[in-house]
């Protein structure tokens, strides 16, 4: 199974199979000058412009019937500044390529999400994050941006520029593709380090009772709760002085490929065909992985292969609301006739200062619900979303949600700041699509 979106006969389809688009034309610029020219030509032709990465967003945030920009030729490391502790990369660089290139340079990002198939611009523009007590989102690690705006100008911005450049930098780190087409990103990096991962099963009641301590005592804590059970799998990642002790290749293949992908895929096939089997399958799945501890460089600890296709909704709630929210979610599943074969993922992030970050201005907990692709998900997601929004939840911009601009204006204190900047940079809405019309307004 491929790890990216696909295009066939002029039809673009995202990775999750939830979005189709029919762009009028596709452009793959090999330089920022070619990108700027493509944007200017689209404006002259009256066509909207959207950039698309590997299609890992479940929403239609990248869909267009106008000009689709494919940035895969704008890839690779442009510059490494060891003194400043930064690296500048082309916007179309896949995270996997960035992580391996940084490792060869003896460098690393501080934190990252749990997959690395996305492009750096797609991941940051939608607010992709990992889990962390002190650090989390990729966008919060950005130190500079280069983007092409609606008039075809190339704008370079950082926290050190003019007042307008600072305003663009503040917002465009998570810009939803609404402010321009990102062509390059400068990230903060640090010397590569080791993380020790401790993975072990734990009862859900214990995790919730001890959540504050587990969060406070670990640099990176996350857990997966299996609906229809009281079981979780927990993961604690903390910096280590070494020595490096990676997962044994055979154990890694058994756990990460055979069980977590092969057997789990087969279980989901059975559950989709015979929903009554899901609770029993969930009990088996929740006990399939045993405890393990290993030490490795960051991207080999933070990320893992995800080959079982699914659809996902994720909401960010105030961290102090996490336990109550998850208890409500469990109670809803328990009293319903839903059959949920995918675990619920829980992560955290500290507050940041990015206007449309899901962690903007508040310490945050993330709750992600999933369903196997091809399984009806609307009933589960609707019920879950009702719970999340009751706690002032903010949905991940790249994952399924039904919220609109009126809702976002209430849960994001700086929402008007972002939309005012959009009015200045793109008054004619060159970067429009239906998704942005819903979440940002006209």
Automatic annotation (TrEMBL):
Alphabetized SUPFAM superfamilies for the sequence: FAD-binding/transporter-associated domain-like
Pathway: Cofactor biosynthesis; L-ascorbate biosynthesis
UniProt-listed GO biological process terms: L-ascorbic acid biosynthetic process
Keywords: Ascorbate biosynthesis, Oxidoreductase
One annotated GO molecular function: L-gulono-1,4-lactone dehydrogenase activity
InterPro entries (alphabetical): ALO_C, FAD-bd_PCMH, FAD-bd_PCMH-like_sf, FAD-bd_PCMH_sub1, FAD-bd_PCMH_sub2, FAD_lactone_oxidase-like, Oxid_FAD_bind_N, Oxy_OxRdtase_FAD_BS
Gene3D superfamilies membership: 3.30.465.10, 3.30.70.2520, 3.30.70.2530, Uridine Diphospho-n-acetylenolpyruvylglucosamine Reductase, domain 2, Vanillyl-alcohol Oxidase, Chain A, domain 4
Family: Belongs to the oxygen-dependent FAD-linked oxidoreductase family.
The protein, known as: L-gulonolactone oxidase
Organism: Streptomyces prasinopilosus
């Amino acid at each position: 199974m491929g790890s990216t979106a696909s295009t066939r006969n002029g039809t673009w389809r995202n990775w999750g199979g939830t979005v189709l688009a029919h762009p009028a034309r596709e452009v793959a610029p090999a330089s920022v000058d070619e990108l700027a020219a493509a944007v200017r030509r689209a404006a002259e032709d009256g066509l909207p412009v959207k950039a698309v990465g590997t299609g890992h967003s479940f929403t239609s945030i990248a869909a267009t019937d106008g000009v689709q920009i494919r940035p895969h030729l704008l890839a690779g490391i442009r510059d490494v500044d060891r003194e400043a502790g930064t690296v500048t990369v082309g916007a179309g660089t896949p995270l996997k390529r960035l992580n391996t290139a940084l490792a060869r340079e003896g460098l690393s990002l501080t934190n990252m999400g749990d997959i690395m198939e996305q492009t750096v611009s797609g991941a940051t523009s939608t607010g992709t994050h990992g889990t962390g007590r002190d650090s989390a989102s990729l966008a919060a690690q950005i130190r500079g941006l280069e983007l092409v705006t609606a008039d075809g100008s190339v704008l370079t911005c950082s926290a050190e520029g003019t007042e307008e450049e600072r305003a663009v930098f503040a917002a465009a780190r998570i810009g939803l593709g609404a402010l321009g087409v990102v062509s390059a990103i400068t990230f903060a990096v640090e010397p590569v380090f080791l993380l020790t991962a401790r993975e072990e099963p734990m009862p859900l009641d214990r995790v919730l009772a001890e959540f504050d301590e587990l969060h406070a005592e670990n640099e990176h804590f996350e857990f997966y709760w299996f609906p229809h059970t009281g079981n979780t799998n927990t993961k604690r990642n903390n910096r280590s002085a070494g020595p490096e002790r990676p997962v044994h290749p055979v154990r890694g293949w058994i756990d990460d490929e055979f069980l977590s992908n092969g057997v789990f895929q087969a279980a989901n096939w059975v559950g989709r065909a015979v929903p009554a089997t899901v609770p029993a399958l969930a009990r088996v799945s929740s006990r399939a992985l045993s405890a393990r501890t290993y030490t490795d460089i960051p991207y080999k600890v933070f990320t893992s292969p995800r080959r079982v296709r699914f659809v996902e909704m994720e909401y960010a709630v105030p961290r102090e609301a996490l336990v109550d929210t998850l208890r409500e979610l469990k109670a809803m599943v328990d009293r319903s006739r839903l059959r949920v074969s995918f675990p619920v993922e829980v992560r955290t992030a500290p507050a940041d200062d990015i206007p449309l970050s899901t962690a903007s201005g508040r310490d945050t907990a993330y709750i992600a619900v999933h369903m196997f692709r091809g399984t009806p998900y609307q009933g589960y997601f609707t019920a879950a979303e009702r719970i999340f929004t009751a706690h002032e939840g903010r949905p991940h911009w790249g994952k399924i949600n039904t919220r609109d601009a009126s809702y976002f204006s209430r849960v994001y204190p700086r929402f008007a700041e972002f939309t005012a900047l959009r009015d200045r940079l793109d008054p004619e809405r060159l970067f429009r699509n239906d998704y942005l019309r819903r979440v940002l307004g006209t």
